[in-house]
Structure to design on (246 residues):
């Protein structure tokens, strides 16, 4: 296995973006250390490092919502991974397919054309 | 603008995955701080925080390869962003469309069925 080009951070971790191979939807992002990456490569299923529990985290071990790995890429400076997977069930612990189920609304800062209170209350 | 749900790390940064809105290809990942995120929301173009140069980084400022933001999502625990963009040119400084242009080959650890040197050299 060739992981020579990878840069793990000062905690020994590398972020891993998980993408659905069928729909190309981005499902989640989690972190891997050397051991979880090796587990992932050898088993063909995603294994992460849980920063909150401080332990190896075999994705789907409890929920059954495993991810079968079809492809592992790394970026130009080798400090981020991109894995394409076949997702069983949903990736998110909330039950959603993707962890990215909420969006930021843009504030366009447009001025109002009139003051509705003034217009409608004075009728 | 609603960024109340976001968790910036101890360096004040949040990872931002950039995805092409037309092809759904993951183009790159970079980091934003509060200011660069606000710049991004207000301008509709991506602005990151360069960890290597320690400064605001308007994507495409030098190369012209800007990213027009169509959608900003955040994940279930609010510590990762996903931006869908219209990418002008390529996202990667190497000239590639995506920074993820290299892959890790899986080592299937299969035993050889025969030793080719022995077989072919003894003919």
């Amino acid at each position: 296995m060739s992981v020579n080009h990878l840069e793990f951070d000062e905690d020994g971790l590398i972020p891993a973006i998980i993408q659905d191979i069928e729909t190309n939807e981005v499902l989640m992002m989690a972190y891997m250390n050397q051991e979880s990456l090796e587990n992932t490569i050898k088993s063909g299923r995603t294994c992460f490092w849980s920063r909150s529990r401080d332990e190896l985290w075999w994705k789907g071990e409890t929920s059954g919502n495993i991810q079968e790995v079809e492809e592992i890429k790394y970026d130009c400076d080798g400090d981020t991974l991109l894995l394409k997977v076949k997702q069983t069930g949903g990736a998110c612990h909330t039950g959603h397919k993707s962890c990215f189920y909420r969006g930021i609304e843009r504030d366009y800062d447009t001025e109002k054309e009139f003051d509705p209170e003034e217009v409608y209350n004075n009728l």
